[in-house]
């Protein structure tokens, strides 16, 4: 026991000496540690797995819903700024995200969409993953978000995407 106390005292003394001699670097290091600790839960929501598609690493239904919504609005043409802003507002209101979380989820959702190559390929894959991680209970939230993003009538590719989502969620 005295050896452990001596080791801890030596480490504490070295740490105290380092902080006293490099205060600015110590403050920056403490801020980095705080940021890392704050972002740890977000990193845990998406785990990259080796030899698996990035979509298989999604553990947060909000990420999958956002990626599906982004894929949905990009099926026919590039989304407008209004649609992107509307998606951001929907992420905050319907999926209960903070401003920072919504921005991070949108970036991650966009990256997942690019990993699937096209929206047409992304929607069924993301739908299956969403059904798997949320056991089908996210259908209503997803449907609310997609409905709010639609301007006018559905295009043919959007109707096909909804059919793909119904198949993924095993709905009629």
Average pLDDT for all residues: 83
The secondary-structure class comes to mainly alpha
Q: Which spans of ≥5 residues are poorly predicted at pLDDT below 50?
A: none
Question: How many alpha or pi helices?
Answer: 8
What does this structure look like?
It is built from 8 helices and no strands. It is mainly alpha-helical and 172 residues long. The termini are far apart.
Question: Secondary structure elements and their pairing?
Answer:
Blueprint: H1 2-21, H2 23-45, H3 61-73, H4 81-93, H5 99-115, H6 119-134, H7 139-149, H8 156-168
In short:
The protein is mainly alpha-helical.
Salient structural properties:
172 residues, mainly alpha
């Amino acid at each position: 026991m005295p050896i452990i106390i001596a080791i801890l005292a030596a480490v504490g003394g070295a740490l105290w000496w380092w902080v006293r001699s490099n205060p600015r670097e110590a403050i920056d290091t403490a801020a980095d540690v705080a940021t890392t600790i704050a972002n740890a839960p977000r990193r845990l929501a998406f785990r990259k797995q080796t030899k698996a598609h990035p979509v298989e690493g999604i553990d947060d239904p909000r990420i999958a819903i956002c990626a599906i919504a982004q894929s949905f609005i990009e099926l026919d043409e590039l989304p407008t700024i209004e649609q992107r802003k509307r998606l951001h507002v929907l992420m905050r209101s319907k999926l209960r995200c903070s401003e920072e979380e919504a921005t991070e989820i949108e970036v991650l959702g966009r990256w997942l969409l690019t990993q699937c190559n096209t929206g047409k390929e992304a929607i069924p894959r993301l739908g299956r993953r969403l059904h798997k991680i949320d056991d089908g209970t996210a259908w209503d939230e997803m449907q609310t978000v997609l409905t709010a993003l639609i301007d006018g009538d559905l295009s043919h590719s959007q109707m096909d995407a909804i059919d793909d989502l119904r198949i993924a969620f095993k709905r009629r």
